């Protein structure tokens, strides 16, 4: 064998060996590293029969997880090659879009026109445009999302109700479905621990969990999901957790200030080949995730100075992790609206709460008709007046609040988040609905958050643990009065067939 080839093989073998060793070391460090959530565990009161030792346990691997299809991987490559990521994200390629929402020509759709020549669509049985999309059924995407036959995240669940079961459906948006690349969503943790609790108490029953959440949706979508997708599965309990996608402070700031150039930080560049490779490898390899995080945190300029006093002040705030300077604006609170005890019948409630409550009313009525009931959770926002964060480690939180929600001040975001939860709590009380005060118990620890609302994997785990403590008394009450587990089930509306199809198109030679 030629010396050059021998040396090349030796170098290759050394690189592979060292990389494998580094991967093993990183996995060991991640396993041994203390969880960011553990330091808060003692703060969470335990429900009767729950043991803290369960917190570190994980659900069983999903039996329906499969290797990603080669054509799905190729579809992602086509998205990346198109150079358009703002109008079509990688995960959007594995959604079946409502044909009533898409319209007759995808090239005229404000969002989907930049898809790389194809999308999946489905025809809604009721002809309505809500929900705007569903996940593809029975799929494991290259992003990491695993769906069952209903297009819900998680394991298979039979359509027909089984004896001695309690079925809980979780509805909401991205904070319910969780990041697609996370191994578990918060409902999966809750379902595992509820079955752990039942086994510890020697209860002859099991819990089934449905995760009907999906990102970027609003209350009209959620109400439609409840009616068309969840109700036919006859859940005993439906848990609603959402509070961001209609959280628009513009509803009480009629005279919005013009955008301030100094509020804009240098845009993050489009990911290069290295970043894209690391993202793909990060679904499998811990070393790739470490390198990806390192590049995200330290590989870009944290801000740019504009040369004036405001620009310098913004640069200093960015460097110190403080709130960025904001232009002045005036909050116009609805006249006569009591902030501490709001009249929830008013149509001028801030942050679109009148619309949300109307949809919650429909969700509640649908749940009752299907023989179940609704529980509403308060929604956690990581924001407070004067909050200071680590400018590198918590960069995404800072950008989310100061760029994504510019020009609104922390104190106004905090004020409206608290008000929103008061409204949700009063709605629940007046309707006789269980209110799960998640926001009160969830720590305001930025290490548990990706941004101001989405959790890290450990943040999701801790939120699930809190939901568990709040759900156990609800379950106990129903066990005591004999309403759960049910002996019979009401006739549910039929589960509508769900048959996604591929639509291809070419917008390159079209205008408009």
The number of helical segments is 14
Query: Describe the biggest sheet?
Result: 5 strands, parallel
Going across the major beta sheet, what is the strand order? Answer: 5-4-6-7-8
Structural class: alpha/beta
The radius of gyration is 24 Å
What is the overall shape? globular
Instruction: Give the terminus-to-terminus CA distance.
Output: 62 Å
- The percent range for strand residues is 5-15%
Average pLDDT figure:
87
Helical residues, percent: 25-40%
Total number of beta strands: 9
N-to-C series of helices and strands: HHEHEEEHHEHEHHHHEHHEHHE
Low-pLDDT segments: 29-33, 262-271, 296-309
Secondary structure: elements and pairs:
Layout: H1 3-32, H2 70-82, E1 95-98, H3 99-102, E2 118-122, E3 133-135, E4 165-172, H4 174-177, H5 186-200, E5 206-211, H6 219-230, E6 237-241, H7 273-282, H8 286-298, H9 309-320, H10 353-369, E7 373-377, H11 395-404, H12 410-431, E8 434-436, H13 438-441, H14 457-481, E9 501-504
Parallel strand pairs: 1-2, 4-5, 4-6, 6-7, 7-8
Antiparallel strand pairs: 1-3, 2-9
Helix pairs in contact: 5-14, 6-10, 7-8
